[in-house]
C-alpha cells in the first residue's frame, strides 16, 4: 500500500497559542503555500484513488485544493484529526501549569494532556483507521503533524524519544510504502517529498 500525507498550511494563529482541535482558518499566505506542495506531490508521481482529510478547517481548505488538482472527492475522517491538547488548547505554552509542562517534557509522547489525548492515543486511532485501507491501494491523507508522526512511529519504527511532532514543516509531503505484518498491521518505510515551510521552534519555558 502507498500512503501519501500532506500536512496543512500555516494556520492563522496571531496569538501563538497551543492548538490541536482548535479550528483555526488558514493564513493569508495559503495560496502560495498550497500550490508548492501540490505541485511537488504531483511531480512525484502520486496517483491516489481516495483522498481523506481531517475535518479541521486548516486541513480541509488544503484538501479542497488537492481535490481540484486530482479530481478526487474529499472523504472527511475524524481519525486523522490533530491531537486533542485538552485544557492546554488556546493557551500559550508558557502559561500552562509548570507541573504539567515538566511532566510532558519528561514523557513527550506518553503524557496525556489534561482532558485530552496523548500522542500514543493518536498512534492507536491512526493505526486502526489505516488498517482498514486496502493492501494494494494508493491513498492520500491531508492532515496534521501528530498524525504524520504517528505513522512514522508505529508503522516505520521511529523511536519514541525522537519527538518529530514539533519539528515538521507546514505543507510537508511524505510518501509511505507499507505492507501488513503477521498481526495485520501496516509497517514499512517513509520518504519526505516536499520539505514545506519551517515552523518556529516551540517555546515551552
Q: Architecture in CATH? A: 3-Layer(aba) Sandwich
What spatial order of strands do you see in the largest sheet? 3-2-4-1-5-6
* Whole-number total of structural domains: 1
The CATH topology: Rossmann fold
Evaluate the radius of gyration: 16 Å
How many helices? The count is: 5
Helix and strand string, N-terminal first? EHEHEHHEHEE
| Tally of DSSP β-strands | 6
**Roughly what is the average pLDDT, rounded to an integer?**
96
The CATH superfamily title: Phosphoglycerate mutase-like
Strand content: 15-25%
The assigned structural class equals alpha/beta
Low-confidence stretches: none
Major sheet attributes: 6 strands, mixed
What's the level 1 CATH class? Alpha Beta
Quaternary state reads: single chain
Estimated helix fraction: 25-40%
First-to-last CA distance: 41 Å
How would you describe the shape? globular
Would you mind describing this structure in some detail?
By secondary structure, this protein is of the alpha/beta class. It has a single domain (2-194), classed as Rossmann fold. 29% of the residues lie in helices and 18% in strands. It has helices at 30-43, 57-70, 98-106, 119-130, 145-155; strands at residues 2-7, 50-53, 74-76, 138-143, 173-180, 186-194. A 6-stranded mixed beta sheet has the order 3-2-4-1-5-6, sandwiched between helices. A hairpin with a 5-residue loop joins strand 5 and strand 6. Helix 1 packs across helix 2 and helix 4 crosses helix 5. The longest helix is centred in the first third of the chain and has 14 residues, at 30-43. It is globular and about 45 Å long. The mean pLDDT is 96.
Amino acid at each position: 500500500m502507498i500512503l501519501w500525507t500532506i500536512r496543512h498550511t500555516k494556520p492563522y494563529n496571531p496569538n501563538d497559542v497551543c492548538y490541536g482541535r482548535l479550528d483555526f482558518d488558514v493564513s493569508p499566505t495559503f495560496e502560495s503555500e498550497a500550490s508548492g506542495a501540490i505541485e511537488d506531490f504531483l511531480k512525484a508521481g502520486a496517483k491516489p484513488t481516495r483522498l481523506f482529510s481531517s475535518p479541521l478547517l486548516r486541513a480541509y481548505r488544503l484538501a479542497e485544493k488537492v481535490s481540484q488538482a486530482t479530481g478526487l472527492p474529499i472523504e472527511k475522517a475524524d481519525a486523522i484529526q490533530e491531537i486533542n491538547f485538552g485544557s492546554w488548547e488556546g493557551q500559550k505554552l508558557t502559561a500552562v501549569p509548570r507541573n504539567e509542562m515538566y511532566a510532558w517534557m519528561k514523557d513527550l509522547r506518553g503524557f496525556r494532556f489534561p482532558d485530552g489525548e496523548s500522542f500514543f492515543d493518536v498512534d492507536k486511532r491512526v493505526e486502526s483507521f489505516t488498517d482498514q485501507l486496502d493492501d494494494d491501494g494508493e491513498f492520500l491523507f491531508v492532515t496534521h503533524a501528530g498524525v504524520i508522526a504517528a505513522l512514522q512511529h508505529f508503522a516505520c519504527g521511529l523511536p519514541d524519544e525522537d519527538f518529530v511532532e514539533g519539528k515538521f514543516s507546514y505543507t510537508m509531503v511524505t510518501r509511505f510504502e507499507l505492507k501488513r505484518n503477521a498481526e495485520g498491521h501496516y509497517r514499512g518505510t517513509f520518504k519526505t517529498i516536499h520539505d514545506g515551510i519551517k515552523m518556529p521552534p516551540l517555546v515551552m519555558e
